[in-house]
Write a structure and sequence with these properties.
159 residues; globular; three-stranded parallel β-sheet; alpha/beta; two-stranded parallel ribbon; Rossmann fold; 6 helices
């Protein structure tokens, strides 16, 4: 049986922290589906199709990473694709509370769905997409926080 996991997020933009988490997850799972999700709470800078392409460029040629755009409930995607693991990253204690609530709700709707929480690497635990955009919009350097092709696109949009 293949071990598949879904890694959902808005990825606006994908950061080196996300990339690191996916690479580490690939040591455990046979396939990671990176699900570019819609969030009613956020207004993304980049269109979903662009975010998908940026993520695919990070893993160019890696058959173990699949990227899809999805706007429905995560549990419906998981059920439809027979995936029973959601991968989520934890940076700080505050992340745990949110992830615990989401995991509980997801399991209520799809009891077979398990959530795997993977700690962020020490060098990326402070990085998030919102912070990257904020720093860059004020002229800061984020080149160590995002892949080079993402940095280029962000500079075109924000600078």
């Amino acid at each position: 049986m293949e071990r598949k996991a879904i890694y959902p997020g808005t990825f606006d933009p994908i950061t080196n922290g996300h990339v690191d988490l996916i690479k580490r997850a690939l040591t455990v799972f046979d396939e990671v589906v990176v699900l570019v999700a819609h969030s009613g709470k956020k207004t993304p800078l980049l269109e979903a199709g662009v975010r998908k392409q940026l993520i695919e460029q990070c893993f160019d040629g890696n058959q173990k990473v699949r990227v899809e755009v999805y706007s429905g409930l995560l549990v419906e995607y998981a059920r439809k694709n027979n995936i029973k693991v959601v991968l989520r990253g934890l940076r700080a204690v505050s992340d745990f509370e949110y992830e615990f609530q989401m995991s509980t709700m997801n399991r209520r709707m799809y009891p077979e769905l398990q959530t795997f929480l993977l700690m962020a690497s020490e060098k990326f635990f402070f990085v998030n997409s919102t912070l990257v955009k904020e720093v860059l919009s004020h002229g800061g350097d984020v080149s160590e926080l995002v892949p080079a092709h993402v940095d280029k696109i962000l500079r075109e949009k924000l600078c």
